[in-house]
Amino acid sequence: MSPDGSDLLRLDESHVCRAGAVLARAFHHDPFFSCLIPDPLRREQHSHHVMETLVRYSVSCGEVYATSPNFEGVAVWLPADKVKMTFWRGLRSGGVSIILNLGLRSTFRQLSASDLMCSVHQRLARIPHWYLYLLAVEPASKGKGHASRLVNTMLKRLDAEGLACYLDNTNASNLPMYRHFGFRLLEQYTLPNTGVSLWAMMRQSQIPA
After folding, report:
1. Does an H or E element contain 76, and which?
2. Residue 128 falls within a domain, yes or no?
3. 179/15 Cα distance (integer angstroms)
4. What is the band of 182 on the pLDDT scale with cuts at 50, 70, 90?
5. What is the pLDDT of residues 10-22, one digit of tens each?
6. Which residues of 155-170 are buried (b: 16+ CB within 10 A; e: fewer)?
7. Looking at the domain assignment, is residue 30 inside a domain?
8. Where in the sequence is the domain holding 40, given as residue range(s)?
9. CATH number of the CATH domain containing 117
10. Residue 205 belongs to some domain of the structure
């Protein structure tokens, strides 16, 4: 059941592979993930291993939702104190498959990027909040309101609980969408030696009058 009892599908371990595949397709051309796995063919073949690890961890430590059993879109959420994935927790969530399929260089590139994102997050987000870890819609299903359903359902719950929401946007084209949801830009920063930008964004709780 979704955060407010609507018809979103809350995912569990049995859904990890399918959710990972949706995320891999949705992020195939994302600048951030293209930087982490530069070769397009390797990214197409192996990025699902990364996404499955992130989903498996988040199913255990947070909440993951799909729009329906058809998986038109997926949203991955974590409470603030679970955002930083420890090395051993990452291995238990499937990190070994990342090392085996993508190699040490790509793995350490991802770990370095994750460490930077976590340090920025810890510095900027000092109030109680949840983290929108990943948001993806199948390329063929874009423009049909799936992202809005996934995000607004949780934001309604966070507003009721008086909690903010933080995210790291990895694609400049998504900035208008997140601003529409009520997020404001806290800081734009760059992955070292890449020129790839990320945008740290926060939405304050909007308690109804």
Report:
1. strand 73-79
2. yes
3. 30
4. very high
5. 999 999 999 999 9
6. bebbbeeebbbbbbbb
7. yes
8. 9-159
9. 3.40.630.30
10. no
